[in-house]
Amino acid sequence: MAAFFMREMVWQLVGARTWRARQVLCDTCEPDLSERAPHVAPLQKKALSSWDSAFFYPLEASIIRYHIIMEGITMDEREWEQLLHIKTAGRDDSHSDGEHHPYEPTDYGVLERLANSGYIGKRDTLIDYGSGKGRVSFFLAYQTRCQAIGVEYDRRLWEKALANGQTAASRRRVTFVLADAVEYEVPPQGNRFFFFNPFALHTLKRVLGKLFDAHYQAPRPMRLFFYYPYEETEAFLTHHPNLVVEDVIDCRDLFDEDDDREKILVLRLRD
Predict the structure, then answer these.
(1) Bridge partners of 176?
(2) Model-level pTM greater than 0.85?
(3) Which long-range contacts link 14-17 to residues 24+ away (Cβ below 8 Å)?
(4) How far apart (Å, rounded) are the C-alpha atoms in residues 188 and 9?
(5) N or C: which terminus of the chain has fewer CB atoms within 10 Å of its end residue's CB?
(6) What is the Cα 77 distance to its own chain's centre?
């Protein structure tokens, strides 16, 4: 009981009753406080550093995240970028062509919904195709504790992702590969795959072929996430003999316009 009141007192001192401070304290459950320190205000950093970091280990991240979800408080793009310590905003279509679509970062509200779905966990390895500056990889690694690999063919965007990786809160769980998706060899631990229309349908078919081959060589449960799918792409995926539609995560309420494409298709490979 004494420990409980002690924690409450510390939370009051460092402002941890707010949503963002709860997230910071959630991350301090990990041994290396220095990885999170840049996201703590100077006063909070001083207060946290003055305590043995082991004091916070019993505060299970899952319990704190439960309170975050129940409080229903959201953050905007600027706040997420500051918390994650990355710069991924802005559309970039300078290197887009018929094969590769423009870079446009996935909305943080959509990523929150995916992270809270329970489909990705700390034992999973996510492959983000068309990773751009790295937002999806950094965010999901931060929120779900998964490992993440971003695959990007555009060297400029890949270099920006690497630059973000120098400061990102989840940098130790994220790596980036400069490669064309159709040539990328899926690692045996890869079991979660994210797509936000990174390339044309005929390219997607070739990428799926690589996933099927990887599954055949090293069988394991695989889930695929397709955000904001084109009608043609959705029809292809939902009628594919090797894929099963597991869920549709509705995201329409996150935006002003009622757009039927605002969703995440969740599919798994057929056993």
Answers:
(1) 150
(2) no
(3) 14/40, 14/43, 14/44, 14/47, 14/48, 15/41, 15/44, 16/44
(4) 46
(5) N
(6) 14
